[in-house]
């Protein structure tokens, strides 16, 4: 089975996806009878398009972003095309997250849906701001939608909830869904440094963005929680349905007092389920040190599903980086056609 892929956005996650597809193409073909061919990559300044497939090995050598697309086009003697979605089988949406408009991912995804393409999201913006609109169009066109790469990179948050708990009644979903904030809190707790020092250390190591607002404000965790709840429980919530507080106001005294009382502060995203009513919140929580969440440190993430029939199901770990997110996108593509 051959499937053609159009990628929107050529940042770190898209680059890693291309690397993995290039490296593992023979394994994917032999294991899943699936031949994946990237025919287009759209960046901020134009698009490269090759109907017979882009040379991914060459593309990843060109770097990332629009400069890489320009360099590839120069080497191959191609012209950069306009930012119009060509007809393919799958759109991978990996543009930067915009929690105000959802653009440019929203326009790209709707254009792809109008052409009957399946959708895989690595970016959260379009989904969080326009989930119902996208879902309605997916149902209208009879296509597939996957986005586990947008809900905590390699941590299989959706796989567990959608597949492993089928037939069970969920009571709650809670997790540490942001590796950056968990790293900062771990540094404050274990090394007794200030929030500012921990953030600066995370930025030096490439764990935190230059502008860490989405992470430390709790909004990234809230976005992931909304997407998990919507997929697992078949809902259409948006970011406005979550009560959100971040970690930027925490002090060393807060950390110390919690520690002295046998507790560790974690940024936890939680959905409590009461019949058809779901209450969602994100904020710092004092976790007893005997609880399993207290032991999740560094950039690690975790999720706990509490059910009536199966008890608590805990899953932790997974690469919290562009490679892990790229691998999750590839997993979503493969699972569409199993």
UniProtKB/TrEMBL annotation:
- Pathway, per UniProt? Amino-acid biosynthesis; L-threonine biosynthesis; L-threonine from L-aspartate: step 3/5; Amino-acid biosynthesis; L-methionine biosynthesis via de novo pathway; L-homoserine from L-aspartate: step 3/3
Q: Where is the Homoserine dehydrogenase catalytic domain?
A: 156-334
Catalytic residues identified in the record: 224 (proton donor)
Aspartate/homoserine dehydrogenase NAD-binding domain residues: 9-147
GO MF annotations in UniProt: homoserine dehydrogenase activity; NADP binding
Give the top-rank taxon of the lineage listed in the UniProt record for this protein. Bacteria
Residue numbers binding L-homoserine? 209
Question: Which annotated residues bind NADPH?
Answer: 124
Q: Name one GO biological process term.
A: threonine biosynthetic process
InterPro entries hit by this protein: Asp/hSer_DH_NAD-bd, HDH_cat, HDH_CS, HDH_short, NAD(P)-bd_dom_sf
Classification via SUPFAM superfamilies: Glyceraldehyde-3-phosphate dehydrogenase-like, C-terminal domain, NAD(P)-binding Rossmann-fold domains
Alphabetized, the UniProt keywords read: Amino-acid biosynthesis, Methionine biosynthesis, NADP, Oxidoreductase, Sodium, Threonine biosynthesis
EC numbers listed for it are: 1.1.1.3
Top enzyme category: oxidoreductase
Annotated catalysed reactions: L-homoserine + NADP(+) = L-aspartate 4-semialdehyde + NADPH + H(+)
What family classification does the UniProt entry report for this protein? Belongs to the homoserine dehydrogenase family.
The identity of this protein, by name, is Homoserine dehydrogenase
Organism for this UniProt entry? Clostridium fungisolvens
